[in-house]
Amino acid sequence: MNTSEHPDTAPDTNTTTDADTDGHAEATREELWAYAGLRLHGTTRRHAWVTDSGTGQEKRFAVRRRESYAVGEVYRVTAEHRDGTLYLVGEPRYAADGRVDPDTAAEWRARHHAAETRAGLDRLQRNAARRNELDDALQPVRAIVQRLPSHADRSALIAYITRALLT
């Protein structure tokens, strides 16, 4: 398998869901590719596919939606080679006639789970940053609420703030 030493910095491959209809396709054919899992390019999620039933080069395609593929399994894909760029046409289909060797599949699964974990951590950190921003903005209001003498006064202030925000 020919993969980059730093696969997360490997160039991304273009993807399309519809075949080019202007007649400029160099070659469109069905190929067998193995799914190598999720990869991250910065914070962008990419599907990694390895050509030649898992023995070729790793190619990355954008995650268009929540597709679900089994890491290490072989799929039939329609690949279009045009102007030096490889395009994935349509959706990969499970081939049911091949798997990559168990050691390679285990390595791919480990990288897939690591990418999922990093993507989840990035998402949690972005959400926490938004929450911290809101907490910082609410701090002066909290200070005012805590100085009010009664529950009724605090409730009245909160009602006032709610009204002001919604009008």
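Second entry:
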Amino acid sequence: MVKVLKMAKPYVSSYPGIANFLGILQSYPQTEDWIFQNFIQVVYYENTNDQYLHEMTGSLLDLESGLWLIGQYSYCPFFSQYILNREILHQCSKDVVTFFKKMLDNDYYVNLYINHRMLSNTPFYGKEDHDNPVMIYGYDDETQEFLTAGYFYHNLHGFHKILYQDFVQAEKNVRNANDYSNDYIQRIQLLQFRSCIKYAFHKEELLQSLSDYLESRDHTNKLYFISDKKYYYGLSFYEKMAEQFMKYSIDERLVQTLFDQKKMMLVRLLFLQKRGYITKKQTENFEIKTKDIIQNLEIIRNVILKNRMKYGEFRWPQHLKDELVKFVYLTKEEDYLLMKELYESIK
């Protein structure tokens, strides 16, 4: 028997949280309005106890639910989400392959961590433990394989087939790296697409999001309940990134968050043109400026990666830090001008 749920190549694929999320949504045309209503705002967060920076210091705001351990699927109207603890699964079912096949038969996507060291047809096979999430979206009994989306080659998102026998070992041998990640690793997400939902794009909400970005705020106060961190939104993300580069660590993942936001903006521009909010000429102008910012962010990211082996995250010489931060502020100014012009054009 063969069962395959819909899964598309995502617009943005830097992290599992957004890649698999978009991969499902983009498979259904009725989600287009919701996708382009969102993924504008970015958030930088830092701990208030000053003991350490959060392991991941920035993200797209729409990947945050505002509640501990409750992911982005919980607030998206197109998903029904159920969380199953891995320990309970093992207590109730001795055959995980059959269990997950039943979930797929009932149109549930399955998102969980597995140990890639056990996957015989990947570069991680037989090497050190490597826990990473995969999204199961189908199976093929003839070839004895699950169809999955995840990161299997060179940290690039893609689609991959996992033999049932490999999957059993990979699921069973997940290693808990630390207490922080353990909560995530032990959760299995069951996701069902809600085809009955209808969502309409709202120009006013788009303008509010653009205004929030320009004014470095979040009018929804979405993250209010997580009180152990301070939050910085929109253009202030650049300032906090520069501050972190100068005082703490130089981490390319901050740059990647802005890169993802601009990659989404490129696709959104075509959507806005199609809906008549901007003209073709305006679209071409905004595309050029957005691509310029993306190029700047790629330069910053590549400089960080180039110097990673020599200086790590914490030992950069001051003159390199100064050059990097100067380029960050130049990019911020370009971003401000772009977003302001886009806001005025749509308004």
